[in-house]
Each structure stands twice: as structure tokens, then as C-alpha cells.
Amino acid sequence: MADTFNYRIDHHGSLVRPIELTTARRAGDPEALRKAEIQAVEDAVVLQRKLRSTVVTDGDFPRDDFRSAVLDGVSGLRRTGETGADGLVRWVAESLPKASGPLLGDWAARLAELTVIAPKAALPSPAYLAATTFEPGHGPSSARELGEAFAEIVRAEIESLVAGGVRLIQLDNPLLLGQLATTPADPGALSFADALAVDALAVRLDDRPEGVKIALSPGWVAPTEVDRARAEQLYAGIGADRWILPFDQGTPAELALVETLPDERDFCLGIVDATVPELEDIDTVMARIDAVGEFKDLEDGAVSPSRGFADVADRPWLTVEQQRRKVVLVETTARYVWGNEF
């Protein structure tokens, strides 16, 4: 049974950037951009409160993509002009990364000042960063060594965020679910075992105030078929409190991901597809959640969209209005399941 801090109505962190912010970013005036970022974050907090979210984020508004909090804040990496298969700009680690200070501290503090709702922060996982930035012959001796250096930075950032009042920290590793397929995807520069070991280093938090949760999103789309033994290995290998799992397609694989999760872990179900404008049927969503209730205590659960709405700033999946309707459906579903207990 989970504790009372379940943060029932969640979202991945990134929101569609308002036009005023994107216009300011294109204009290239740093002072005007900073003002636009501050205003956009303040407006986003108001929006999230109106939508009755139980956490608030800065929408990733001050960043180019979901990796930027780390990649823009450490030395030792070079941004290339290339784009990977995932559509993200490639970065290459030319030496072990070093952080000169907190990565998200200023924005986390601003969130804490704006609302009493629990601030949430999202970071790329160290294993994901190592797998996507390691290149042989460019400094670090191995992807594992690079991952451990990233893990030290991310763990220090988590400790800093918690000390600053953040109560939910989410790590994103979009590569992990591909490793749970019956025919696993190519792990790239970091093996599955090494990825688990690296991400495990980051989520260890010795001094944990009441209500703090470390979450992990292992990917945004479930494989066609889940190798349950590998899923159990994933959950056993990384001691995250909450697992944010895709649950928007109604597939047996999605159900298997939840079923294999140990009972002492929280689960957050990504019940609406954040990439398509069509709104899900709430009866269908509720039927899927009822199926989870056959083998899990729903008191340990929460709901969210399937992924971020704009993990890359200039490539939002939806419009602001389409995003609002999706989040409203998440909130409505939460109240159907848990009433007004939160």
C-alpha cells in the first residue's frame, strides 16, 4: 500500500509553448526571452491549478527539449549539427561531464513561490544520456563510465531539488521499454544491465522528506509483446518509487507492464495519447483501469497523459486547446476512480 502522497493527477512535465514564448525565442533578445519565460511559467501554473492537477511544473518552457536541463548545464559535451533517428539534435560527450551548480534550482524555487501545490521536476535519466551521447574515441573510456558521471550529476540535482521543496522528480529514459520486448531493441552504447545499474545510482536518496517520490518513465510506447522476466529485472534493478507507464492503447502488453510491477511501487497510468488530437472515450479508459484493479490496489495509482505534450519545444504534438481537453479528461478520470479524496 502506497502512502497518501499519490499525486493522482500528473503529467510528464512538458507543455505546449505559448506563441508569445516561441516568438520571443526566435527574436533572439535574451532579456525579452527571460521575461517571456517567466510570464509563461506563471501562466502555466495558473492553468495547471485550474485543471486541478495535483502537481505543477514549469512546462519545460525555459528549455529546448526534455534533455536540456542537463545537456545545457554541464561541460564536456558538444552539440552537433546532426539529428538522430528520434528527431533530436545529437550531442557528443568529449570528456566526462561536470556541473558547475544546480540545473533547475531557479525555476523550481519560482514554482514553490507561485503555488502551494507540489512542484514537480523532470530530468533525462543518466543512462539515457550516456547511451545517446557516448561515441568511442571521444574522451570517456566507456558508456558505463559516462553514465556513472551523469548519475552523480543527476543524483546531486535530485538532492538539491528536494531540499528546495520539489516533491516529485521524474527521470525519463525512453530507451528502456524497447529492452522489454520479446526481441529486444538494440540497446545502443549502453547494455540493458549497465543502463539499470546507472539509473539505479541516480534514484538513491538517503534523506527523503515525507511525500517525496522519485519517478521513472521507461518509455512512451509499450512493445508489442512484453518479456515479463526482463520487466521484472527492470523493476528490481531501479529503485524508483513511481513508475509512469504508457496505458493509452489498451494492449495486453500495457497491462503486462503494470501487472509485473512489484506491489510496493506506485504506478501512474498514461491513459490519454498526448500525440493525437482525438479525445479518448472515458468509458473505454475506465474499463482499462478497472482491469488493472483486478490485480493491483488502485490506491497505489495515479493517471497522466502518455508522454509530454512538447518534449521538443518547437515540435508540439497538439495545440494548446487540444492539450487542455486531454488534461481535463485525465482529471475527470481521476475523480471517477478516486472521488474527491485529493
- Could you estimate the helical fraction of the residues in percent? 25-40%
Number of helical segments? 11
Overall strand count: 9
pLDDT < 50 runs, ≥5 residues = none
Distance between the termini: 17 Å
The Rg value, from CA coordinates, equals 19 Å
Report the portion of residues in β strands.
Answer: 15-25%
The protein's oligomeric status is single chain
Give helix and strand order, one letter per element, not per position.
HHEHEEHEHHEHEHEHEHEH
Report strand order across the widest sheet. 1-4-5-6-7-8-9
Mean pLDDT: 93
Basic shape: globular
Q: Which properties best describe this structure?
A:
342 residues; seven-stranded parallel β-sheet; two-stranded antiparallel ribbon; 39% helix
Q: What would you note in describing this structure?
A:
The structure is a single chain. Helix content is 39%, strand content 17%. The protein has 342 residues and is α/β, with parallel strands linked by helices. The strands form two sheets. The protein has a seven-stranded parallel sheet with strand order 1-4-5-6-7-8-9. Strands 2-3 form a two-stranded antiparallel sheet. The radius of gyration is 19 Å and the shape is globular.
